[in-house]
């Protein structure tokens, strides 16, 4: 679990104090800042010490193992070691920060650690500060990376942040579409966790709260306001806690296939898939469609049209590789229920 949590509007202003005891000699704090904030006021609010560095992270594409390895190598060459890595941004930047922190202290490539409990040593100090709400990356024990052969996280006990700062003010400028796609990631986490075979009271307690908050935010009356940002940030936290002790399900397993082959981003990819999952999540999909309408969001259609057999096979392989997700969704005998043919038919609908 994350060791230290700060929540509240304006809590970003406490960052200097929070980091002070974590500074080791002259080793710098590295701030990985989402490139969206280049030339924006937030960049000037970072409490930069004399040796610190801001690196703007280009997240036009979701994080890759190559990008993580390059950043860690660059930091090791430039500084030897660092006091910490502070990720400020959406899920992509938070994942990058977690992975770079781990790769400062683990040999080889981050691709070697894609899987479950493969990371050998703790990383350097790492803090996460979300500027979009929904992924739960701020609390999860994984960092999702696209590697040479798969899209899979570095799931380990060393992966969670040491500190998170949850300041809903930072999400204020998120465009409505992006806010919805990332928010739906949280909603889908809740549905997949609450209907999954891995469900337990821990996951249920957090999942139900997160689901209520998502419903209030996306199905309630009135225009979007600060209280919606406040609620969605806590929904993301609770949704992340829920899947920490269970798993996600069909939408995520299929969306990973899209992401790997087509580069479809996580939030929108989940929405594209979830829209077609009535068979697996009837109530969840029913409400999802209502939320899409109410918030006037376009869900892209026909994105797999015209793909070759080989390309469908690639997506199917990546997707079926996510065994724990399928087992959570469909039970221990999931391989009999989700055949390659059935999955191909689902991909063709997207
Ligand atoms: N580690 C986990 O547990 C976990 C869980 C779910 C998703 N993820 C990962 O999270 C990523 C998706 O994260 P996301 O949905 O937060 O989007 P994102 O981080 O990919 O960002 C999407 C876009 O929004 C921009 N952006 C960020 N903050 C903004 C703001 N305040 N205003 C305007 N634009 C802003 C970014 O620059 C980017 O262009 C994927 O890489 C996915 O794999 C990780
Ligand atoms: Fe997700």
Plain-language structure description:
- The protein has 350 residues and is an alpha/beta fold.
- Helix content is 47%, strand content 12%.
- It is built from 14 helices and 9 strands.
- The protein has helices at residues 15-19, 41-44, 65-79, 91-103, 176-194, 201-219, 226-244, 250-262, 266-274, 282-294, 309-320, 323-330, 334-337, 340-349; strands spanning 4-7, 29-34, 53-57, 84-89, 115-116, 125-130, 144-146, 151-155, 163-166.
- It has a 6-stranded parallel β-sheet with strand order 1-9-6-4-2-3, with helices on one face. Strands 5-8-7 form a 3-stranded mixed β-sheet.
- The longest helix is centred in the middle third of the chain and has 19 residues, at 176-194.
- The model has no long low-confidence stretch (mean pLDDT 96).
- It binds nicotinamide-adenine-dinucleotide and fe (ii) ion (FE2).
- Fe (ii) ion is lined by residues 135, 185, 189, 252, 266.
- Nicotinamide-adenine-dinucleotide is lined by residues 34-36, 59, 62-63, 89-93, 95, 131-132, 135-137, 140, 142-144, 171, 173-175, 178, 182, 185, 265-267.
Structural features:
350 residues; alpha/beta; six-stranded parallel sheet; three-stranded mixed sheet; 9 strands; binds nicotinamide-adenine-dinucleotide; binds fe (ii) ion
Secondary-structure map:
Layout (H helix, E strand, L loop, with lengths): L3 E4 L7 H5 L9 E6 L6 H4 L8 E5 L7 H15 L4 E6 L1 H13 L11 E2 L8 E6 L13 E3 L4 E5 L7 E4 L9 H19 L6 H19 L6 H19 L5 H13 L3 H9 L7 H13 L14 H12 L2 H8 L3 H4 L2 H10 L1
Parallel strand pairs: 1-9, 2-3, 2-4, 4-6, 5-8, 6-9
Antiparallel strand pairs: 7-8
Helix pairs in contact: 3-4, 5-6, 5-7, 5-9, 6-7, 8-9, 8-11, 11-14
């Amino acid at each position: 679990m994350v060791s230290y949590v700060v929540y509240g509007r304006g809590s970003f202003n406490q960052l200097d104090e929070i980091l002070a005891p974590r500074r080791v000699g002259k080793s710098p704090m590295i701030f990985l800042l989402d490139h969206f904030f280049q030339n924006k006021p937030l960049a000037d609010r970072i409490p930069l010490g004399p040796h610190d560095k801001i690196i703007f992270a280009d997240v036009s594409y979701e994080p890759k193992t190559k990008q993580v390895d390059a950043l860690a190598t660059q930091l090791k060459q430039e500084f030897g070691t660092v006091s910490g890595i502070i990720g400020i941004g959406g899920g992509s930047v938070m994942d990058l920060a977690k992975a770079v922190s781990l790769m400062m202290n683990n040999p080889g490539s981050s691709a070697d650690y894609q899987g479950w409990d493969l990371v050998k040593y703790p990383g350097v100090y790492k803090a996460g500060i979300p500027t979009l709400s929904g992924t739960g990356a701020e609390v999860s024990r994984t960092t999702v990376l696209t590697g040479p052969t798969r899209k899979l996280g570095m799931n380990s006990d060393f992966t969670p942040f040491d500190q998170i700062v949850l300041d809903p003010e930072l999400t204020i400028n998120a465009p409505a579409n992006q806010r919805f796609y990332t928010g739906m990631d949280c909603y889908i986490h809740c549905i997949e966790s609450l209907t999954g075979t891995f469900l337990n009271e821990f996951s249920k307690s957090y999942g139900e709260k997160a689901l209520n908050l998502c419903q209030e935010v996306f199905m309630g009356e009135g225009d979007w306001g600060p209280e919606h940002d406040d609620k969605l940030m806590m929904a993301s936290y609770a949704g992340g806690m829920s899947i920490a002790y269970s798993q996600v399900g069909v939408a995520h397993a299929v969306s990973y296939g899209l992401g790997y082959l087509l580069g479809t981003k996580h939030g929108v990819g989940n929405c594209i898939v979830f829209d077609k999952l009535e068979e697996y999540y009837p109530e969840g999909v029913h409400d999802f469609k209502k939320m899409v309408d109410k918030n006037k969001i376009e869900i892209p259609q026909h994105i797999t049209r015209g793909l070759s057999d080989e390309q469908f096979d690639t997506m199917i392989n990546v997707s079926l590789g996510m065994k724990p997700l399928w087992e959570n969704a469909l039970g221990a005998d999931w391989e009999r229920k989700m055949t390659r043919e059935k999955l191909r038919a689902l991909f063709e609908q997207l």
